[in-house]
Amino acid sequence: MLNRWYATKIAREWNVPAEGVGYVTRFDVQRSYLDRYEVQQAGGRDVLEYWIPAEELDDFNAHIVGAIVEEADFRGPVGDQEFADAYEALGRALPAAWRTYLQGESWFRRGWLASGAYVWLNTPRELLELQDAWGEGTDAHPGIAIIGGDGSREQLVLDLRCDPAPVMLVDVSSGGWDSAIRQADDVSQLISRIEAGTFEFDFGD
């Protein structure tokens, strides 16, 4: 299909409920091959796609040019036990809005936003694994909860000492909260901006 918004709809509303995960990918196909097919309207004037017969998919795949890029990864609801384990380990509950989001029908796991930012969000289990691996870095940030990042050095974290807990950005080399940069006043604001595709990292430049 040629519309990212519709591919996202399919991933979130069909693939995630059926399989627990849905992907939106982008790739190029040889123009001479695509010229065999007409662009079709599917379910609406703005929904455009190529209809490739199932028996021709292997041939279609053979004409993909270059890399297949994962634009977005959506996941199904996170289980209650992960939140219970996080509460026990952190001594504090993760914000209710964060739990509601991760336990919704689908949530944005990772990928590229319309803003151009690449965002990766963590489940509570991954949060605990990261904080255990960070060791002294975690100890230097009391009340921290690593809920995501940019897929590289920058971590999106909550400061659970505050209510509501602000969303901050810390580098993996950070020695304490003094160097953290505020990204959102609370996690609800972060979620809204991610869902709208407007979130951008503020690196304090």
> In the CATH hierarchy, what is the architecture of the largest domain at level 2?
3-Layer(aba) Sandwich
Q: How large is the radius of gyration?
A: 20 Å
Series of secondary-structure elements, N-terminal to C-terminal:
HEHEEHEHHEEHHEEEEH
Overall form: elongated
Approximately how much beta-strand content do the residues carry? 25-35%
Largest pleated sheet: 8 strands, antiparallel
Number of domains: 2
Percent helix? 25-40%
Give the rounded overall mean pLDDT. 94
CATH class of the largest domain: Alpha Beta
Number of strands: 10
Give the CATH topology of the largest domain.
SMI1/KNR4-like
Calculate the terminal CA-CA distance, rounded to whole Å: 38 Å
Low-confidence stretches: none
Largest sheet strand order:
1-4-5-6-7-8-9-10
Organism: Micromonospora polyrhachis
InterPro entries: Knr4/Smi1-like_sf (IPR037883)
Protein name: Knr4/Smi1-like domain-containing protein
Structure summary:
This is Knr4/Smi1-like domain-containing protein. The protein is an alpha+beta fold and 205 residues long.
Give an overview of the whole structure.
The protein is an alpha+beta fold. The protein folds into two domains: 69 residues, no CATH class; 121 residues, SMI1/KNR4-like (3-Layer(aba) Sandwich), CATH 3.40.1580. The chain is built from eight helices and ten strands. It has an eight-stranded antiparallel β-sheet. Strands 2-3 form a two-stranded antiparallel sheet. Helix 4 runs parallel beside helix 6. The protein is elongated, with a radius of gyration of 20 Å. The chain starts with a helix and ends in a 9-residue tail after the last helix.
